[in-house]
Write a structure and sequence with these properties.
Length: 226
């Protein structure tokens, strides 16, 4: 009986390996990529695997900060990093100015350009600061009372060394070729149904367009008009 079970288990393992995609990224390799995306030492708490995407959750030593890193199998790179402090809450009042919130973000993140600062209520009063870097776009939440950065999200672009996918600039070029004379609003690298895509938001006159492009082939998947 044990021999039969062993044979069945071996056959199942062989079948599983045979249908795995050739570009599959192992957990250990994906974990290494995720750790390299962290700003400091993180301790692994949780692992998820969806089609084409690894998700890892880490906490710092005193467990007051949590990071979530998403790693794309096809691009073999981290595409998103989210940080949140434990017991996240905004301020009770808008004690600091928007310029002070901007300065707090410029101090924490180097070589960035701030593109927008807005007030919002997310478990309290915060300033949401949008900014960009040559390797990513991001938003940071600043406590409107204490002036501390309490959380942020980075969306990474493909670098020139990542040959698996087209660059951000190439994606924008493809989208603008489809929608001539349109102005760029935003570019995001996302995973949809296991496929790594660029979502390019354009505006032309009063019409907004979202062009979804396969990040590996450069093929336009969909054009949404709003």
């Amino acid at each position: 009986m044990k021999t039969i079970k062993t044979i069945i288990a071996t056959l199942m393992l062989t079948l599983t390996l045979s249908i795995m995609p050739s570009n599959a990224l192992s957990k250990n390799k994906a974990l290494t990529i995720a750790r390299n995306a962290l700003p400091s030492v993180g301790y692994l708490q949780k692992t998820k695997h969806k089609k084409g995407l690894w998700e890892f959750t880490f906490k710092n030593k005193n467990r007051k900060i949590e990071w979530e890193v998403k790693v794309s199998e096809s691009a073999k790179m981290a595409i998103k990093l989210e940080m949140e402090r434990k017991q996240y809450e905004g301020g009770k009042v808008y004690k600091i100015s928007s310029s002070a919130a901007k300065k707090a973000v410029l101090k924490k993140f180097k070589n960035i350009t701030v593109t927008k600062v807005s007030k919002t209520k997310d478990d309290g009063r915060i300033y949401r600061v949008s900014f960009k870097h040559k390797k990513y776009t991001a938003t940071a939440d600043v406590n409107a009372q204490s002036g501390k950065v309490q959380g942020y999200t980075k969306n990474f672009f493909a670098t020139k060394t990542t040959s698996a996918i087209i660059s951000k600039d190439k994606a924008v070029s493809i989208a603008k070729k489809r929608i001539p004379n349109a102005n760029l609003r935003k570019v995001k690298l996302e995973v949809e149904k296991g496929t790594l895509v660029y979502e390019v938001e354009l505006i032309k006159g009063r019409i907004e367009y979202e062009v979804t492009i396969n990040a590996k082939t450069g093929k336009i998947i969909e054009v949404d008009i709003d």
